[in-house]
Amino acid sequence: MRIARFTTGDDPRFGVVMGHVDDNGIPDDDVMVVPLIGDPLYAGIQHTNEEIPLAEVRLLAPVLPRSKVIGIGKNYAAHAAEMASEVPAEPLMFLKPNTSVIGPGDPILYPAQSSEVHYEGELAVVIGRICRDVPAERATDVTFGYTVGNDVTARDLQRSDVQFTRAKGFDSFCPLGPWIETDLDPHDFSQGRAVRTYLNGDLMQDGTTADLIFDVPTLVAHVSSVMTLLPGDVILTGTPAGVGPMGIGDEVEVFVAGIGNLVNKVVSRD
């Protein structure tokens, strides 16, 4: 099931995206959105009797985390190598504020403080219930679904600050979308699902979730052993090799097989 958050010009609503989406994440022309009653994270899946063509809605970030986005660093060996780093012995965590979240088509704002802003395409996990100390084998019990993320990073500030808060935390530095896919099995990611990033149509990252050092259940267990997770919290699972700079006017597209495409354009924050 694909859960979207959308607007037709009025207040944001949630809905189920019904219809065929091809292997490249492109929906057919007749795909519809069936609005839901309330927020499905709290109200469950309650359909209305409406149907709205997907082409007539504007998709928003499919979730607005109530408290936090947890990033995982260097979770692909090739990415750790390109960053001249060792593979971590346990998941390397950092936080992004929920104010960094934007949706499909929203602009990534290039801050004046940086001259080296990078894309980092990745799989994102959406938590579905309050939880703590979750065993890896029960990770699916607390997972609502999966979406596509872009862990935008001011790389020069990351180097100069050492810790990641400023480099990862600017407004608009966490695009999410286009929707949440609830029916994927985390073990599917161990078998390998493509994670690709395109810059102005050129393929820049071409990875697979089979290469995750720490898989999704391990990440849920590790993060929840440190902090309580709330419904709507997001775990970014790490990015494959191929990260690089993007500039004002560039368009970045992140694709995760089985979920879809997330496209954003870079604009000046001024």
Question: What would you note in describing this structure?
Answer:
The protein is 14% helix and 36% strand. The longest helix is centred in the last third of the chain and has 11 residues, at 216-226. It is of the alpha+beta class and 270 residues long. Strands 1, 2, 3, 4, 5, 6, 7, 8, 11, 12, 14 and 17 form a 12-stranded mixed sheet that branches. It starts with a strand and ends with a strand.
Helix content bin: 10-25%
What is the subunit arrangement here?
Answer: single chain
What percentage of amino acids are in beta strands?
35-45%
Shape: globular
Structural class: alpha+beta
What does the secondary structure layout of this molecule look like, with pairings?
Layout lengths: L1 E6 L5 E6 L13 E4 L4 H4 L8 E2 L4 E3 L8 E5 L3 H6 L9 E5 L4 E2 L5 E3 L6 E3 L1 E7 L15 E8 L2 E2 H7 L3 H5 L4 E8 L4 H6 L2 E6 L2 E7 L7 H11 L7 E3 L7 E2 L5 E6 L3 E9 L2
Parallel strand pairs: 6-17, 8-14, 9-20
Antiparallel strand pairs: 1-2, 1-5, 1-14, 2-3, 3-4, 6-7, 10-13, 10-18, 11-12, 11-17, 12-14, 15-16, 15-19, 19-20
